[in-house]
Amino acid sequence: MLGTDVDLQHWYRRADEFPWLGRLAQRLRGLKPPRYPDLWEALCHGIVFQQLSIAAGAAIMKRLIERLSTPIYHEGVRLCPFPRPPTIAAAQPRTLRSLGLSRMKASYLQEAACTVIEGTIDEERIQALSTPEAAAKLMELRGIGPWSASVVLLRGLGRLDAFPLRDTGVTASIALLSGDPSTRADVVLERLGDMRGMLYFHLLVGRMWERMQEP
């Protein structure tokens, strides 16, 4: 989950092709690509976070986990494991909507749970596919488009050649961190090649870093 086994030397060489990105990579040197523990959890996040800010998506996800989890206690600490597919599939739609999900997202989430239960979407089989093939398979699910499929592949399966191209914050983050509003995301992604997924994490953390420096 923490990506500690990923060798990033290739990433640093590619990042150095862009002075601003090379500096960012050095500032964040050691940053590894984290991932969700399984495909199911990645699917849920890919659906819930669509067209939402990170803060809004995280708030909904927190409510969903706390409401539908079966808590366990360890040394007096209440822990809430992520709800498994049967729990989501059996939830009342009005319960899901009360947590902040739209009617459509609630239905997408429950349909995704059913496909995992039925084995229509299986992590082992998805892993055996190339990234374009895996994305196409994921997009057979209602509610999973190109952005969500890329998020699932990057954050759930560790595919560093995947990048959520339609993330509205990408252009703004690249402009901010490069210091040049004319910097083209497509050019950067093409030259990063199969390590483009690392840009996602560096833009995210780099943007947070910049905000922390603001007075």
Structure description:
The protein is an all-alpha fold. It has two domains: 9-33 and 164-213, no CATH class; 39-157, Endonuclease III, domain 1, CATH 1.10.340. Helices cover 60% and strands 3% of the residues. It is built from 13 helices and two strands; from the N terminus they run H-H-H-H-E-E-H-H-H-H-H-H-H-H-H. The protein has a two-stranded antiparallel ribbon. Helix 11 (168-178) packs across helix 13.
Main sheet: strands, sense, barrel = 2 strands, antiparallel
CATH architecture of the largest domain: Orthogonal Bundle
Radius of gyration: 18 Å
Give the uncertain stretches in residue-range form: none
Helix content: 55-70%
CATH H-level homologous superfamily name of the largest domain: Hypothetical protein, domain 2
Q: Termini distance?
A: 34 Å
- SSE run: HHHHEEHHHHHHHHH
* Structural class by secondary-structure content: mainly alpha
Jot down its keywords.
215 residues; mainly alpha; Endonuclease III, domain 1; two-stranded antiparallel sheet; 13 helices; 3% strand
Give the helices and strands, then pairings:
Blueprint: H1 9-15, H2 19-27, H3 39-48, H4 54-68, E1 72-74, E2 77-79, H5 85-90, H6 93-98, H7 103-118, H8 123-127, H9 131-138, H10 146-157, H11 168-178, H12 185-192, H13 197-213
Helix pairs in contact: 1-2, 3-7, 3-10, 9-10, 11-13
Describe the structure concisely.
This protein has helices at residues 9-15, 19-27, 39-48, 54-68, 85-90, 93-98, 103-118, 123-127, 131-138, 146-157, 168-178, 185-192, 197-213, and strands at 72-74, 77-79. The protein has 215 residues and is an all-alpha fold. The protein folds into two domains: 9-33 and 164-213, no CATH class; 39-157, Endonuclease III, domain 1.
